[in-house]
TrEMBL record, chains A, B:
GO molecular function per UniProt: DNA-binding transcription factor activity; transcription cis-regulatory region binding
Record keyword Magnesium present: no
Pfam families hit by this protein: LacI (PF00356), Peripla_BP_3 (PF13377)
Name of this chain's protein: LacI family transcriptional regulator
Keywords noted in UniProt: DNA-binding, Transcription, Transcription regulation
Lineage: Bacteria, Bacillati, Actinomycetota, Actinomycetes, Micromonosporales
Length: 344, 344
DNA sequence: AGAAGCTCCTCAGACGTTGGAGCTGTAACG
DNA sequence: CGTTACAGCTCCAACGTCTGAGGAGCTTCT
């Protein structure tokens, strides 16, 4: 019954107040545990509220307090694949757990319907139904991100946005991680002719992971033999790129696991053995890489951890509480499995 | 916040009205395209609103209209694995796309914090910040579901709940599907000694899929050789169950793909070949089964389609519009891949 | 005893929006 | 020319909550 009385009408503070014999204002204070109300009255109010199944109207509260009590998780359209990606689930899981602990609602804003001219960003701004937002996997040149920032809505970005110097961001050091992964193939497995399948280069992640790869091959003086092909994080593209190439390489660094898996299936169909003929390493570790055969070695990105930190940061931002950081990188870890030659 | 003017104050209808030279009420009607307002005025209001960056307060509107403009997607705690499961993403994807088309917000309600005594269900009821809810993967005996139903909150359940005769539900015919999958192993691949790894039996899905299996083996008179082991939808359990068993079977029907994968790794470590020695079939097709080696044959459950239908149904329910169905099953499809012996 | 101080509550109003009822001016009509 | 009709607005009130100001009743102090 919760929000409805026996008569079907909503139970409001007024109803509780009438039953207790005081005013709605006093009830409000009682439920807020204000010290302006006597313990006895508080107790009575609480009892009656429970009896009647009183639940406060979030709309009224939001209006009065000028605070929605909710945060938005924004996912740009560009990343249709992101949504179909377990990355998002890790993020969502982290966001909701923190939000729950703070009695905050989580709303999902996607802009699947660009047709109607409203992006996810606008949707949040329009609605004004969130006190802040977490934005993930945005493209580098997304002017709506700038607008969102400019709007003053509390915002925390997950990922790296070097050009947005004022933004609060949390991400991983993709360049270093990619460099380390590449060096692993070189140092541990002795690969010298490397292929890199990039992510979309309009995303910073794509650029950084490519740059890390390039740093590594350059440092080892094997840049001349290195091949860089532009991909888009999709399995299909990973497959197609490898399928359309000769066999002049002995190691592949893919910018994510999906492309690594695409590469794996392509290599399989070309009859090239992994890892003996071609060592393969991916990026992300959101689930896929662990279950393939051979299991794909990868750089594990702690998506949930980032989401948790981002959400905590956002809530502090909203509350105007002091914060420890403005730009933060979390540590990745390396999962050397079978596809690079490490695993059993 | 987009809703703030240069001075930092929120832009309200009053501001727009003052600028146009009419009252807020007229503005409201103008923006609602009411025919009580002249086209010229409407035009003026729209222009000024755009100029000022006016965005309506969702809280005020919700309060006035007694309508939140949002729906909740509820995920019970019991299914921690569900949240870590791509099933949820398919559902979320379907829900958001429909909700977006109807200018409705989606909020996620999980009850990760049972510690504080509030389940996801209560959370939605408490907040009153959703006009209705979609509930997925609830256990059979979940009295809070009953309470939620009793509360009168518009509700659509995804899954099968035979005991809740009044509830609006959408699901798949798990029993028939499971029977068909089992029969496939029997008829097409000639397996006679079958093992079934069940889902959690406090979920209807677990029960129905087991019953379908039993129907099939009974119909073919091979029930005596059949083994049924109780699982919980987890990969670990699937692995453990198979690992702890002899090799007296030549086919496995797992109640979901995770358990099928667990079974696969266990078989691999025991040196039993799939599909030649043991044919394997799973259930769900949410992503995992396609990428393993061998790829796992499975029953494809159209999660996104269910979510879309559920959301459309919910929105109609909220609006009091006529609806076509109250209990509905969507069709599954069969993906016979390598693990049963079909695929290349 | 009067004033001061405290406790515990009431009162009024506002948050921003919206719908119904009411008002005003012009056009149409007899 | 007076009435009716209508378009096009204004006015009022309310949705449910919360806060600051104020007041009533009691105790305590000088």
């Amino acid at each position: 019954m919760a929000a409805k009385s026996a008569t079907g009408k909503r139970v409001t503070l007024r109803d509780v107040a009438a039953r207790v014999g005081i005013t709605p204002a006093a009830c409000s204070m009682a439920l807020a545990d204000s010290d302006r109300i006597s313990p006895a009255t508080k107790e009575a109010v609480r009892r009656v509220a429970a009896e009647l199944g009183y639940v406060g109207s979030s709309a009224a509260r939001a209006l009065r307090k000028q605070r929605a009590g909710a945060i938005a998780l924004i996912v740009p359209t560009t990343s249709r694949h992101v949504f179909g990606h377990s990355y998002f689930m890790h993020v969502l899981s982290g966001v909701t757990s923190v939000a729950n602990d703070h009695d905050t609602q989580v709303l999902i804003a996607t802009n699947a319907d660009t047709a109607r001219g409203l992006t996810a960003y606008e949707r949040v701004m329009r609605s004004n139904s969130a006190d802040g937002a977490i934005l993930t996997s945005a493209a580098i040149e997304d002017e709506t991100v700038d607008r969102l920032l400019a709007s003053g809505l509390p915002l925390v970005l997950i990922g790296n946005f070097p050009q947005l110097t004022d933004a609060i961001t949390i991400g991983v050091d993709d360049r270093s991680a990619s460099r380390a992964a590449t060096e692993h193939l070189i140092e541990v497995h002795g690969r010298r002719r490397l292929l890199h399948l990039t992510g979309p280069l309009d995303h910073q992640t794509g650029v950084d992971r490519r740059d890390g790869f390039l740093e590594a091959v350059t440092a080892y003086g094997i840049g001349a033999d290195a091949i860089v092909l532009e991909g888009d994080f999709s399995e299909e593209r990973g497959h197609a790129l490898v399928d359309g190439l000769g066999d002049t390489y002995d190691g592949i660094v893919a910018a994510n696991d999906d492309m690594a898996f695409g590469a794996l299936t392509a290599l399989r169909s070309r009859g090239r053995a992994v890892p003996s003929e071609v060592a393969l390493i991916g990026f992300d570790d959101f689930g896929l890489s662990r279950v393939t055969t051979p299991a794909i070695s990868t750089v594990s990105v702690p998506a949930e951890e980032m989401a948790v930190a981002a959400t905590e940061r956002l809530l502090k931002l909203i509350d105007g509480k002091p914060a420890e950081w403005t730009r933060r990188d979390v540590e990745v870890s390396f999962r050397y499995r079978q596809s690079c030659g490490c695993g059993a």
